[in-house]
């Protein structure tokens, strides 16, 4: 159940990222890489 919820949230965020601002999505990915 938790995995399904996580997957749903991930898909929703990915959808919002593509529709809203691909540039923001790329910035978030770069920021995440810096943190790791």
Write the layout of secondary structure elements.
Layout: H1 2-20, H2 22-35
Key features of this structure:
mainly alpha; single chain; 36 residues; 2 helices; 92% helix
Q: Overview of this structure, please?
A:
It is a single chain. This protein is mostly helical. It has one domain. Helix content is 92%, strand content 0%. The protein has 2 helices and no strands. It starts with a helix and ends with a helix. The mean pLDDT is 76.
Question: Radius of gyration, rounded?
Answer: 11 Å
Number of domains: 1
Helix-residue proportion: over 70%
Which strand-content bin applies to the residues? under 5%
Give a short synopsis of this structure.
By secondary structure, this protein is an all-alpha fold. Helices cover 92% and strands 0% of the residues. It is built from 2 helices and no strands.
């Amino acid at each position: 159940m938790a995995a399904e919820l996580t997957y749903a949230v991930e898909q929703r965020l990915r959808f919002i990222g593509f529709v809203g601002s691909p540039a923001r999505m790329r910035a978030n990915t770069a920021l995440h890489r810096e943190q790791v």
